[in-house]
Amino acid sequence: MASPLQSLLDSNRAWSNTMRNQDPDFFERLAQQQAPKYLWIGCSDSRVPATQIVDLPPGEIFVQRNVANVVSHSDLNCLSAIQFAVDVLKVEHILVVGHYGCGGVQAVLDDRRLGLVDNWLRHVSDVAIKHAGMLGAIDLMTLRNTRLCELNVIEQVVNVCQTTTLMDAWERGQQVSVHAWCYSLADGHINDLDMHVTSREGTRTAYESAIERMFIVQGTMR
Ligand code: ZN
Description:
This protein is α/β, with parallel strands linked by helices. The termini are far apart. It contains ten helices and five strands. The protein folds into two domains: 1-32, no CATH class; 35-220, 3-Layer(aba) Sandwich (Beta-carbonic Anhydrase, Chain A). Residues 43, 45, 68, 99, 102-104 line the site of zinc ion.
């Protein structure tokens, strides 16, 4: 009997053949080892597939995704991904990637009950509460979503920088930087929030500059 997922299995075989035709050694090479330069921490949203939107093949990005791209200091899953990526794979860049119109972020703004996931989204609520002044000054809900998506990414970058993994890596002189991106579902473009942290000492300044830019973009005073 054919699998109910036969169409996916067929697509898989066709994709494998195409890859092999383009590069006969592709799978053999990848099977030996992975050596990605990037760790991607993004949202689980099906519309934001890491390698596809930066046009990279398998093997180039180590990926951690969860609802609303949260980096929580008590989430063993995310902390382990960061530790493995930095200590073992020696990635050079960690990208925290939010996306405009994020449903998790919107649920926070709407104060909507979705179930168990509400507990997870409390992390995003904390970001909203921290920046209530800036968010409260925005009338249009779509713009409020935009701003909270960006603020959430900025705060999660700080959370990455404050992990023991990053602090230890920087202390021993390992070159690894953390960046803030926000992806647009509307046109497929990534917006670089221009926050690039390369050291423990630089975290505070990078954070304050990023928040300052948010105020300037919005044209409001603190
Ligand atoms: Zn999302």
